[in-house]
Amino acid sequence: MQGGIQLNKTFIIAEAGVNHNGSMELAKKLIDAAAEAKVDVVKFQTFKTENLVCKNAAKAEYQEKTTSKNESQFEMLKKLELDIEAHKVLMDYCEAKGIMFLSTAFDLESIDVLNELGMEIFKVPSGEITNYPYLKKIGKLKKKVILSTGMSYMEEVQDAIKVLNENGTRDITVLHCNTEYPTPIEDVNLNAMNTIKENLNVEIGYSDHTTGIEVPIAAVAMGAKVIEKHFTLDKNMEGPDHKASLEPNELKDMVNAIRNIEKALGNGIKEPSKSEIINLKIVRKSIVANGLIKKGEKFTEDNLTCKRPGDGISPMRWEEVVGKIANKDFYEDEMIEL
Q1: Where are the alpha helices (DSSP H) in 173-268?
Q2: Each residue of 106-124: pLDDT tens digit?
Q3: What are phi and psi of 116, to 5 degrees?
Q4: Least CB-packed of 43, 203, 231, 295 within 10 Å?
Protein backbone atom coordinates (compact mmCIF):
# COMPACT_ATOMS: atom_id res chain seq x y z
CA MET A 1 0.00 0.00 0.00
CA GLN A 2 1.21 3.50 -0.77
CA GLY A 3 1.90 5.77 2.19
CA GLY A 4 -0.52 8.24 3.69
CA ILE A 5 -1.03 10.33 6.78
CA GLN A 6 0.08 7.74 9.32
CA LEU A 7 -1.64 8.44 12.63
CA ASN A 8 -3.22 6.33 15.33
CA LYS A 9 -6.26 8.59 15.19
CA THR A 10 -8.28 10.36 12.53
CA PHE A 11 -6.47 13.40 11.14
CA ILE A 12 -9.11 16.15 11.40
CA ILE A 13 -8.66 19.22 9.22
CA ALA A 14 -10.76 22.26 10.06
CA GLU A 15 -11.02 24.10 6.75
CA ALA A 16 -11.05 27.83 7.43
CA GLY A 17 -10.46 28.33 3.72
CA VAL A 18 -11.50 31.83 2.76
CA ASN A 19 -13.97 32.22 5.63
CA HIS A 20 -11.68 34.89 7.10
CA ASN A 21 -13.25 37.25 4.51
CA GLY A 22 -9.86 38.95 4.08
CA SER A 23 -9.63 39.93 7.76
CA MET A 24 -6.61 38.89 9.84
CA GLU A 25 -8.62 39.42 13.01
CA LEU A 26 -11.26 37.00 11.75
CA ALA A 27 -8.57 34.54 10.62
CA LYS A 28 -7.11 34.48 14.14
CA LYS A 29 -10.56 33.95 15.65
CA LEU A 30 -10.99 30.98 13.31
CA ILE A 31 -7.70 29.55 14.58
CA ASP A 32 -8.90 30.07 18.16
CA ALA A 33 -12.11 28.17 17.40
CA ALA A 34 -10.26 25.32 15.68
CA ALA A 35 -7.81 24.99 18.57
CA GLU A 36 -10.66 24.98 21.08
CA ALA A 37 -12.42 22.24 19.10
CA LYS A 38 -9.19 20.18 19.32
CA VAL A 39 -8.83 19.49 15.62
CA ASP A 40 -5.40 18.51 14.33
CA VAL A 41 -5.08 21.16 11.64
CA VAL A 42 -6.55 24.49 10.62
CA LYS A 43 -6.28 25.00 6.88
CA PHE A 44 -6.43 28.16 4.77
CA GLN A 45 -6.11 28.78 1.02
CA THR A 46 -3.16 30.28 -0.82
CA PHE A 47 -3.60 31.81 -4.26
CA LYS A 48 -2.76 34.70 -6.49
CA THR A 49 -6.04 35.60 -8.12
CA GLU A 50 -4.34 36.56 -11.39
CA ASN A 51 -2.88 33.05 -11.59
CA LEU A 52 -6.05 31.28 -10.56
CA VAL A 53 -8.95 32.63 -12.57
CA CYS A 54 -9.60 34.50 -15.79
CA LYS A 55 -11.05 37.96 -15.30
CA ASN A 56 -14.27 37.01 -17.09
CA ALA A 57 -14.79 33.64 -15.33
CA ALA A 58 -18.31 33.06 -14.03
CA LYS A 59 -19.00 32.26 -10.41
CA ALA A 60 -20.39 28.88 -9.37
CA GLU A 61 -24.11 28.81 -8.63
CA TYR A 62 -23.52 28.49 -4.87
CA GLN A 63 -21.13 31.48 -5.04
CA GLU A 64 -23.79 33.55 -6.80
CA LYS A 65 -26.17 32.82 -3.93
CA THR A 66 -23.74 33.71 -1.14
CA THR A 67 -21.78 36.71 -2.45
CA SER A 68 -22.39 40.11 -3.97
CA LYS A 69 -24.28 39.94 -7.26
CA ASN A 70 -22.27 42.82 -8.71
CA GLU A 71 -18.82 41.24 -8.61
CA SER A 72 -17.07 38.67 -10.78
CA GLN A 73 -15.38 35.52 -9.47
CA PHE A 74 -12.06 37.37 -9.97
CA GLU A 75 -13.23 40.31 -7.84
CA MET A 76 -14.65 37.99 -5.19
CA LEU A 77 -11.39 36.05 -4.85
CA LYS A 78 -9.14 39.10 -4.96
CA LYS A 79 -10.62 40.28 -1.67
CA LEU A 80 -9.84 36.91 -0.08
CA GLU A 81 -6.11 36.64 -0.87
CA LEU A 82 -3.60 36.18 1.94
CA ASP A 83 -0.11 37.53 1.21
CA ILE A 84 3.14 35.97 2.45
CA GLU A 85 3.31 38.17 5.55
CA ALA A 86 -0.23 37.16 6.48
CA HIS A 87 0.78 33.52 6.15
CA LYS A 88 3.73 34.03 8.49
CA VAL A 89 1.57 35.79 11.07
CA LEU A 90 -1.03 33.01 10.96
CA MET A 91 1.60 30.29 11.14
CA ASP A 92 3.10 31.89 14.24
CA TYR A 93 -0.34 32.28 15.76
CA CYS A 94 -1.10 28.57 15.12
CA GLU A 95 2.17 27.60 16.78
CA ALA A 96 1.27 29.67 19.82
CA LYS A 97 -2.13 27.96 19.95
CA GLY A 98 -0.66 24.46 19.57
CA ILE A 99 -2.37 23.64 16.29
CA MET A 100 -0.90 22.76 12.90
CA PHE A 101 -1.15 25.36 10.12
CA LEU A 102 -1.90 24.15 6.61
CA SER A 103 -2.90 25.87 3.41
CA THR A 104 -3.96 24.72 -0.03
CA ALA A 105 -2.11 26.16 -3.01
CA PHE A 106 -4.29 26.94 -6.01
CA ASP A 107 -1.58 27.91 -8.51
CA LEU A 108 2.08 27.18 -9.28
CA GLU A 109 3.44 30.32 -7.64
CA SER A 110 1.55 29.50 -4.46
CA ILE A 111 3.11 26.02 -4.33
CA ASP A 112 6.52 27.73 -4.15
CA VAL A 113 5.27 30.10 -1.45
CA LEU A 114 4.06 27.27 0.76
CA ASN A 115 7.16 25.19 0.16
CA GLU A 116 9.39 28.10 1.15
CA LEU A 117 7.27 28.55 4.28
CA GLY A 118 8.08 24.95 5.22
CA MET A 119 4.82 23.13 4.55
CA GLU A 120 5.30 19.40 5.15
CA ILE A 121 1.87 18.38 3.83
CA PHE A 122 0.46 19.58 0.50
CA LYS A 123 -3.28 19.46 -0.07
CA VAL A 124 -4.34 19.11 -3.70
CA PRO A 125 -7.86 20.56 -4.10
CA SER A 126 -10.44 18.86 -6.29
CA GLY A 127 -10.20 21.51 -9.00
CA GLU A 128 -6.52 20.75 -9.64
CA ILE A 129 -6.82 16.98 -10.07
CA THR A 130 -6.57 17.33 -13.86
CA ASN A 131 -3.90 20.07 -13.76
CA TYR A 132 -0.79 18.23 -14.98
CA PRO A 133 1.76 21.05 -14.43
CA TYR A 134 0.38 21.59 -10.91
CA LEU A 135 0.51 17.88 -10.02
CA LYS A 136 4.01 17.55 -11.48
CA LYS A 137 5.27 20.46 -9.39
CA ILE A 138 3.68 19.05 -6.22
CA GLY A 139 5.08 15.61 -7.01
CA LYS A 140 8.64 16.89 -7.29
CA LEU A 141 8.46 18.21 -3.72
CA LYS A 142 8.26 14.61 -2.42
CA LYS A 143 6.16 15.71 0.53
CA LYS A 144 3.04 14.14 2.06
CA VAL A 145 0.05 14.77 -0.21
CA ILE A 146 -3.67 14.80 0.55
CA LEU A 147 -5.58 14.56 -2.72
CA SER A 148 -9.24 15.63 -2.93
CA THR A 149 -11.25 13.96 -5.67
CA GLY A 150 -14.47 15.95 -6.05
CA MET A 151 -16.02 15.86 -9.56
CA SER A 152 -13.63 13.03 -10.52
CA TYR A 153 -13.94 9.72 -12.30
CA MET A 154 -11.80 6.87 -11.01
CA GLU A 155 -9.56 7.10 -14.07
CA GLU A 156 -8.83 10.76 -13.31
CA VAL A 157 -7.87 9.90 -9.74
CA GLN A 158 -5.58 7.15 -11.05
CA ASP A 159 -3.99 9.56 -13.54
CA ALA A 160 -3.35 12.18 -10.84
CA ILE A 161 -1.72 9.62 -8.56
CA LYS A 162 0.40 8.41 -11.47
CA VAL A 163 1.71 11.94 -12.11
CA LEU A 164 2.52 12.39 -8.42
CA ASN A 165 4.23 9.00 -8.27
CA GLU A 166 6.26 9.54 -11.44
CA ASN A 167 7.60 12.78 -10.01
CA GLY A 168 8.71 11.27 -6.72
CA THR A 169 5.72 11.46 -4.38
CA ARG A 170 4.31 8.25 -2.94
CA ASP A 171 2.97 9.40 0.43
CA ILE A 172 -0.60 10.04 -0.71
CA THR A 173 -3.94 10.01 1.10
CA VAL A 174 -6.97 10.24 -1.19
CA LEU A 175 -10.12 12.03 -0.02
CA HIS A 176 -13.50 11.20 -1.45
CA CYS A 177 -15.35 14.47 -1.95
CA ASN A 178 -18.38 16.14 -3.50
CA THR A 179 -17.80 19.79 -4.41
CA GLU A 180 -21.38 21.06 -4.34
CA TYR A 181 -21.79 23.55 -1.46
CA PRO A 182 -23.76 22.29 0.38
CA THR A 183 -23.75 18.68 -0.86
CA PRO A 184 -27.18 17.01 -1.04
CA ILE A 185 -27.14 13.91 1.18
CA GLU A 186 -28.21 11.70 -1.70
CA ASP A 187 -25.11 12.78 -3.65
CA VAL A 188 -22.53 11.97 -0.95
CA ASN A 189 -21.90 8.36 -2.09
CA LEU A 190 -19.71 7.40 0.87
CA ASN A 191 -19.28 3.89 -0.53
CA ALA A 192 -17.10 5.41 -3.25
CA MET A 193 -14.50 6.10 -0.56
CA ASN A 194 -13.88 2.42 -0.02
CA THR A 195 -14.04 1.78 -3.77
CA ILE A 196 -11.06 4.15 -4.03
CA LYS A 197 -9.25 2.22 -1.30
CA GLU A 198 -9.88 -1.16 -2.88
CA ASN A 199 -8.98 -0.10 -6.42
CA LEU A 200 -6.03 2.21 -5.82
CA ASN A 201 -4.50 0.67 -2.67
CA VAL A 202 -4.18 4.03 -0.89
CA GLU A 203 -5.09 5.49 2.47
CA ILE A 204 -8.49 7.15 2.30
CA GLY A 205 -10.36 10.04 3.84
CA TYR A 206 -13.33 12.28 3.22
CA SER A 207 -13.70 15.99 2.54
CA ASP A 208 -17.22 17.00 3.51
CA HIS A 209 -19.47 19.77 2.23
CA THR A 210 -22.80 18.63 3.70
CA THR A 211 -24.50 20.91 6.22
CA GLY A 212 -24.34 18.58 9.23
CA ILE A 213 -21.84 16.39 11.05
CA GLU A 214 -23.29 12.90 10.58
CA VAL A 215 -21.64 12.16 7.23
CA PRO A 216 -18.02 12.75 8.31
CA ILE A 217 -18.74 10.72 11.45
CA ALA A 218 -20.03 7.87 9.27
CA ALA A 219 -16.95 8.20 7.07
CA VAL A 220 -14.71 7.57 10.08
CA ALA A 221 -16.74 4.48 10.96
CA MET A 222 -16.18 3.30 7.37
CA GLY A 223 -12.41 3.72 7.53
CA ALA A 224 -11.57 7.35 6.75
CA LYS A 225 -8.15 8.29 8.11
CA VAL A 226 -8.51 12.00 7.27
CA ILE A 227 -11.58 14.21 7.66
CA GLU A 228 -11.76 17.72 6.24
CA LYS A 229 -14.65 20.03 7.10
CA HIS A 230 -15.26 23.74 6.47
CA PHE A 231 -16.01 25.87 9.50
CA THR A 232 -16.91 29.48 10.15
CA LEU A 233 -17.70 31.76 13.05
CA ASP A 234 -21.12 32.55 11.61
CA LYS A 235 -22.94 30.83 8.73
CA ASN A 236 -24.78 34.05 7.94
CA MET A 237 -21.66 35.99 6.96
CA GLU A 238 -21.31 37.02 3.34
CA GLY A 239 -18.86 34.82 1.48
CA PRO A 240 -18.82 31.75 -0.80
CA ASP A 241 -18.31 29.00 1.81
CA HIS A 242 -20.00 30.10 5.05
CA LYS A 243 -23.35 28.45 4.38
CA ALA A 244 -21.80 24.98 3.99
CA SER A 245 -19.58 25.38 7.05
CA LEU A 246 -19.91 24.36 10.68
CA GLU A 247 -20.06 26.92 13.45
CA PRO A 248 -17.63 26.44 16.39
CA ASN A 249 -19.98 24.42 18.61
CA GLU A 250 -20.84 22.13 15.71
CA LEU A 251 -17.14 21.65 14.97
CA LYS A 252 -16.59 20.64 18.60
CA ASP A 253 -19.50 18.20 18.39
CA MET A 254 -18.05 16.64 15.24
CA VAL A 255 -14.58 16.22 16.77
CA ASN A 256 -16.01 14.70 19.96
CA ALA A 257 -18.20 12.31 17.98
CA ILE A 258 -15.27 11.22 15.78
CA ARG A 259 -13.08 10.56 18.81
CA ASN A 260 -15.90 8.49 20.33
CA ILE A 261 -16.30 6.52 17.10
CA GLU A 262 -12.55 5.79 17.12
CA LYS A 263 -12.87 4.33 20.61
CA ALA A 264 -15.99 2.39 19.61
CA LEU A 265 -14.24 0.77 16.63
CA GLY A 266 -11.98 -1.13 19.04
CA ASN A 267 -9.45 -3.82 18.16
CA GLY A 268 -11.72 -6.01 16.06
CA ILE A 269 -11.38 -9.10 18.29
CA LYS A 270 -14.76 -10.63 19.08
CA GLU A 271 -14.63 -11.35 22.80
CA PRO A 272 -16.42 -10.17 25.95
CA SER A 273 -15.35 -6.65 26.89
CA LYS A 274 -14.10 -5.73 30.34
CA SER A 275 -17.32 -3.85 31.09
CA GLU A 276 -19.68 -6.70 30.14
CA ILE A 277 -17.83 -9.75 31.46
CA ILE A 278 -19.48 -9.28 34.86
CA ASN A 279 -22.85 -9.83 33.15
CA LEU A 280 -21.96 -13.29 31.84
CA LYS A 281 -23.13 -15.28 34.86
CA ILE A 282 -26.15 -13.04 35.41
CA VAL A 283 -27.76 -13.22 31.95
CA ARG A 284 -26.61 -16.61 30.68
CA LYS A 285 -28.26 -19.85 31.81
CA SER A 286 -27.29 -23.14 33.39
CA ILE A 287 -28.86 -26.60 33.28
CA VAL A 288 -31.13 -26.99 36.32
CA ALA A 289 -33.69 -29.47 37.62
CA ASN A 290 -37.20 -28.97 36.26
CA GLY A 291 -38.62 -30.54 39.43
CA LEU A 292 -37.51 -33.17 41.91
CA ILE A 293 -34.99 -35.60 40.43
CA LYS A 294 -34.12 -38.49 42.76
CA LYS A 295 -30.67 -40.00 43.09
CA GLY A 296 -30.23 -42.80 40.52
CA GLU A 297 -32.81 -41.28 38.18
CA LYS A 298 -31.83 -40.62 34.58
CA PHE A 299 -31.61 -37.00 33.36
CA THR A 300 -34.13 -36.47 30.55
CA GLU A 301 -35.43 -33.73 28.28
CA ASP A 302 -38.43 -33.47 30.61
CA ASN A 303 -36.79 -33.27 34.02
CA LEU A 304 -34.16 -30.76 32.98
CA THR A 305 -34.47 -27.13 31.92
CA CYS A 306 -32.26 -24.05 31.47
CA LYS A 307 -32.48 -21.00 33.73
CA ARG A 308 -30.37 -18.11 34.97
CA PRO A 309 -27.78 -17.65 36.47
CA GLY A 310 -25.01 -18.98 34.26
CA ASP A 311 -22.50 -20.22 36.79
CA GLY A 312 -23.43 -23.90 36.44
CA ILE A 313 -23.22 -26.36 33.54
CA SER A 314 -23.69 -24.56 30.22
CA PRO A 315 -26.80 -25.46 28.19
CA MET A 316 -24.37 -26.08 25.31
CA ARG A 317 -23.54 -29.37 27.15
CA TRP A 318 -27.22 -30.43 27.05
CA GLU A 319 -26.63 -33.56 24.96
CA GLU A 320 -23.82 -34.59 27.29
CA VAL A 321 -26.04 -34.30 30.39
CA VAL A 322 -29.22 -35.94 29.03
CA GLY A 323 -29.01 -39.68 29.69
CA LYS A 324 -26.61 -39.40 32.63
CA ILE A 325 -27.65 -40.69 36.08
CA ALA A 326 -28.27 -38.32 38.98
CA ASN A 327 -25.62 -38.83 41.69
CA LYS A 328 -27.86 -37.27 44.35
CA ASP A 329 -31.32 -35.77 44.79
CA PHE A 330 -31.85 -32.52 42.86
CA TYR A 331 -34.65 -30.16 43.79
CA GLU A 332 -36.47 -27.76 41.44
CA ASP A 333 -34.18 -24.99 40.13
CA GLU A 334 -31.11 -26.67 41.65
CA MET A 335 -28.13 -26.62 39.32
CA ILE A 336 -27.22 -29.98 37.91
CA GLU A 337 -23.84 -31.46 38.78
CA LEU A 338 -22.25 -34.44 37.10
Answers
A1: 191-200, 214-221, 248-265
A2: 999 999 999 999 999 999 9
A3: -65, -25
A4: 295
